[in-house]
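Annual report, structural modelling task.

Input specification for the iron/sulfur cluster complex:
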Amino acid sequence: MDGTTAETILEVDGLVKHYPLTRGILFRKQIGEVKAVDGVDFRLGRGETLGIVGESGCGKSTVARMLVNLERPTAGTIKYKGEDITRLSGRALKAVRRNIQMVFQDPYTSLNPRMTVGDIIGEPYEIHPEVAPKGDRRRRVQDLLDVVGLNPEYVNRYPHQFSGGQRQRIGIARGLALRPEIIVADEPVSALDVSVQAQVVNLLERLQDEFDLSYVFIAHDLSIVRHISDRVGVMYLGRIVETGRDAEIYDHPTHPYTQALLSAVPVPDPDAREHRERIILTGDVPSPANVPSGCRFRTRCWKAQERCALEVPLLAVPAEFRFTEGPAAHDSACHFAEEKQVVPPEEPGGEPPAEEPESAP
Ligand SMILES: Nc1ncnc2c1ncn2[C@@H]1O[C@H](COP(=O)(O)OP(=O)(O)OP(=O)(O)O)[C@@H](O)[C@H]1O
Ligand code: SF4
Ligand SMILES: [Mg+2]
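The model returned the following structure:
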């Protein structure tokens, strides 16, 4: 679905999270700040999936934590159905939180090993008893196990009795318990074996249709979000540097950073792999406590010029594409944006394998 036509369910403007950088134990003195998130804007349409991609440390999890209200922004707004949730408190906040749930990266550490699967999935009902009366909870939890492809009879087992993929299914069932409208999935498959990743992604896609969910799907690798995302935002050092519909980003990227990320995506077809250009980025990602002036990507960009150090490029459709209406006409924060096809377009039918239930533990 194209997010430009669907009803907006979430709208993020100027989102900032700066952490103070301090020195000294007795007399703490602020010596700077870590600009973990430094001005992020996006919108999410109902039923849509927005993929957010970027290297480690670029601020993806910090954005996720702010979306589900685990952390307060330093500045900016997060509007859920038009209402700024960063200003809510008490009962109003609790009601909104119910509708925006998170699925975490690591199914090994995010599930309490001393709790049964039933208690883990049903725990959100302790905070929101209005969703499920006590007598009805066990049945609801069993329904949820069934929905995520696990045997409802596993309700009394413990997390260690499950495989990685199954544990992530448990995490997803827990995320669904309160019947949210939005799920923020922070690298939900990164800790899983490659063979299991596609199954969990397919499960998330099926659940999206079944429960009319909208997703913010975070990953560090563009190949993972390819099939599930309607739109993609590429993050670098606390900001989104390029954003557009799935095909615009994969087949017509205009930002050098996106092009470099794409050139590292695995290509299964050996012929296509041979024709693909590899762009190797030199240098490390700068520290978010010391962001370069002008374009924050300039210290690693092979196209950088003087202007790049002086002027911050805005996230907008670059002037040279503004009137073309072609697929390159999407937002890209680069003074010298240029279309470049890095990965050969996919043949039809290149979808991942269908969802398969996992074997019993
Ligand atoms: N509580 C905190 N205090 C200070 N700095 C923090 C805090 N939380 C995160 N950071 C810093 O903010 C930056 C962004 O972190 P974040 O976890 O959001 O990145 P990420 O994109 O999710 O990375 P990864 O792919 O490794 O999960 C990092 O440099 C991190 O060290
Ligand atoms: S603005 Fe300059 S440094 Fe930044 S991505 Fe574009 S060419 Fe590279
Ligand atoms: Mg993270």
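Residues 60-61, 186 surround magnesium ion (ligand 3) (CB under 6 Å).
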